[in-house]
Amino acid sequence: MNTALIMLAAVLLDRLLGEVRSFHPLVGFGRYANFLECRLNTRNSRTLGALAWTLAIVPFLALVIFLSQQPALQFVAGVLALYFALGLQSLHEHASRIQTALQDHNLNAAQRAVAQIVSRDTQAMQAEDVARAGVESVLENGNDAVFGALFWFALLGAPGALLYRLANTLDAMWGYRTARFLHFGWAAARLDDALNFIPARLTALSYALLGNASCAWRCWRQQAPQWDSPNAGPVMAAGAGSLQLRLGGAASYHGQLEPRPDLGVGEAPQAADLARAVQLVQRGVWLWLLIFLAIGAWRA
């Protein structure tokens, strides 16, 4: 029950405060990770990349393990660790800015807003492209910034949530197949894939249960294997099917147009579909919390 109550408190704190504005711990972590990468990424080596990953995460993980073992600090450390790992309110705010700009027919503002949550090129996007990119990001980050953190907290407590969030951050920084990170970022990308394997499928299942289940399951089964990422594929295919939207398709990254399979069914996303995607994630969070609270009450 204590785990479930900590999860509920962290979700409510995220809803109340949102993302830390002045100095988010992940900003400091990102600077530290950049410091390590600049000094260790000299030969684009997998070994040095794995060493950098270890040096980036182990000190913070050891600190949280120590704090979570202190009886007087367990609850507070758990709530704060999970709060910093969650990004549900931030996801909602980003999606709202994109939706508002699209509804105001301000394409430039919509492009700038979506550029904050996607890594693809946004300057040449049309309104439909912006809406599609925004919905895709909401669905994928529902796993990366919400359900993954909840899963690992439920499994390993505060250290699990921290490990997951920091590993996910390093993948976002180093996990690119570019000349600079092809080998150095290999460990970050593979470890993030491993940590996300189960959460991604539970996220996809949640999306399916809370929308058009038969369509979500069909898209998951038929379309996800075609996607390059083993974890993003199930999440986005199930989410697209659940919402009955047409996602995927070619997108421009770093100046190059990359072919991507189609996902989902139905019409292309519109501005209002961003709110529908956020609501799908939010309903999934409350479903998870109810399940964990029920398990905690049963065990008590």
What does this structure look like?
The chain has one domain (2-196, 271-299). It contains 11 helices and 4 strands, in the order ααααααααααββββα. The chain has helices at residues 2-17, 25-40, 46-68, 74-85, 88-103, 107-115, 127-174, 186-209, 213-223, 232-243, 272-299; strands at residues 246-248, 251-253, 256-258, 262-264. The strands form 2 sheets. Strands 1-4 form a two-stranded antiparallel ribbon. The mean pLDDT is 93.
List the helices and strands and how they pair.
Blueprint: H1 2-17, H2 25-40, H3 46-68, H4 74-85, H5 88-103, H6 107-115, H7 127-174, H8 186-209, H9 213-223, H10 232-243, E1 246-248, E2 251-253, E3 256-258, E4 262-264, H11 272-299
Antiparallel strand pairs: 1-4, 2-3
Q: What's the quick description here?
A:
With about 300 residues, the chain is mainly alpha-helical.
Task: Give descriptors for this structure.
two-stranded antiparallel sheet, 300 residues, mainly alpha, 11 helices, 4 strands
Structural class: mainly alpha
> Which series of helices and strands comes N to C?
HHHHHHHHHHEEEEH
Could you tell me the mean pLDDT? 93
Which range best describes the helical content: under 10%, 10-25%, 25-40%, 40-55%, 55-70% or over 70%?
over 70%
Flag low-confidence runs.
none
What is the number of helices?
11
Q: Radius of gyration in whole Å, from Cα?
A: 19 Å
Strand ordering within the main sheet: 1-4
Spatial gap, N to C terminus: 7 Å
Global shape: globular
| Total beta strand runs | 4
The largest sheet is:
2 strands, antiparallel
Strand fraction: under 5%
- How many domains make up the 3D coordinates? 1
